[in-house]
Write a structure and sequence with these properties.
Elements (H helix, E strand, L loop, with lengths): L1 H47 L5 H22 L2 H9 L5 H15 L16
């Protein structure tokens, strides 16, 4: 009888510990997703603030801003995510991560064509 109790106890402990680990991972993942969404929205709004054609520019900046947000979220500490989401503060590590991610993501984006491309204006 004691072996059955021991087996049931081990099974119960392993089941409960796996459930608690899954809950922690789910909250971490959801926090990262919240950060990515909030950061991408703020990035797009910042870029569109002084734009003339806001709708067109929102579409143009959505992809690079989401790329930047994903790269930052993969390397940023939870403490900095909390400060950004809850206190609306931008930490030094967030600024440094933004610079690195922006350099990587903006290299892929093609610049919009202007009508004066290749023409010298005197």
């Amino acid at each position: 009888m004691s072996i059955k109790v021991l087996v049931v106890f081990v099974f119960l402990v392993s089941f409960l510990s796996s459930c608690s680990i899954n809950n922690v991972q789910q909250t971490t993942v959801s926090k990262k997703e919240q950060f990515e969404q909030a950061f991408a929205e703020r990035c797009v709004e910042k870029e569109v603030r002084n734009s003339i054609n806001k709708d067109n520019d929102r579409l143009r900046f959505a992809k690079p801003c989401s790329c930047i947000a994903k790269r930052i979220a993969s390397r940023l500490a939870e403490r900095d995510m909390d400060k950004f989401l809850l206190e609306h503060k931008i930490t030094h590590s967030l600024t440094m991560s933004f610079d690195k991610a922006a350099y990587f993501c903006v290299q892929k984006v093609t610049r919009p064509k202007t009508r004066y491309l290749g023409v010298r204006v005197q």
